[in-house]
Amino acid sequence: MRLAFLGCSAPYPGSEDLPAVVGEFGRVIALLDAGEGVQARLFKAGYSPVRITHILITHLHGDHVLGLVPLIQSMSLIGRERPLHVIGPPGLAQYFRSSFDALYFDPPFYIEVSEVGPGDAVDLGRGLSAVTGEAQHTVPTLYYVIRRGDRALVGYVTDTRPLYEAAGSLKGVRVLIHDSAFSADDEALARERYHSTSVEAAEIARLADAGMLVLYHISARYHERERLLREARRFFRNTYLCSKFMKVLV
Ligand SMILES: [Zn+2]
Ligand SMILES: [Zn+2]
Q1: Catalytic residue check, 63
Q2: Phi, psi torsion values for 135, nearest 5 degrees
Q3: 54-56 and 218-219: which strand pairing?
Q4: Are 174 and 211 in contact (CB under 8 A)?
Q5: Which ligand is nearest to the CA of 59?
Q6: Active-site residue, selected from the candidate residues 63, 159, 179, 186
Q7: Domain boundaries along the sequence of the chain
Q8: Whether pLDDT at 12 is above 80
Q9: Which residues contact 109 (CB under 8 A, 6 or more apart)?
Q10: pLDDT of residue 15
Q11: Short-list 68, 245, 56, 82, CA closest to 147
Q12: Against a cut of 0.85, is the pTM above it?
């Protein structure tokens, strides 16, 4: 399994570091969220959009979906024929329909849209599944656990308050990618904006007994991100900061 981080920071529009991660599991290649500018970064990371088999969307905030329609238009321009499976919360299909209608765009390949709710398990093929859970954010938001059989490979938990009661569904996860929008010193802000702090992310990693933790969706306000890393490592040693184009091989 290989993870390629395409963006780590949020939420300013126009940033070239908006949230997106590619998870490569053999022939299943899943894009997790699609912030603005994702396609340029996909190419830079060496992935042709034609190879993406699945796109998993956590929620319909701009910093997670504004790169989606341009990416799909490019897929069609470069002659994609294979179907694409897009998974996300209710409202996703409507977002596609209205965008495609307004743009007179009719994709030449089949797009299967699965609107899912918490507790659903979506088959990704080749023994993989994406199990969803409910995050605590300002709009309906899902988190995903990508599993192969009884092994949790990747937990993708962003734009949420810490979900202590959900740590069980992440038990033993190899890589936990977790919201760490704020420093522990700014916990009040994290509460107010429905995000997590570095320390809260580390607590979830510890409860879940994760193999490693990647601090993700870091607020652009922090010029010295190492501070968040130091805070988290006091609670969970095997913690890393997300950085653009970072790759993780497991
Ligand atoms: Zn966000
Ligand atoms: Zn959000």
Answers
A1: yes
A2: -90, 170
A3: unpaired
A4: yes
A5: 2
A6: 63
A7: 2-249
A8: no
A9: 75, 76, 80, 81, 82, 83, 84
A10: 81
A11: 56
A12: yes
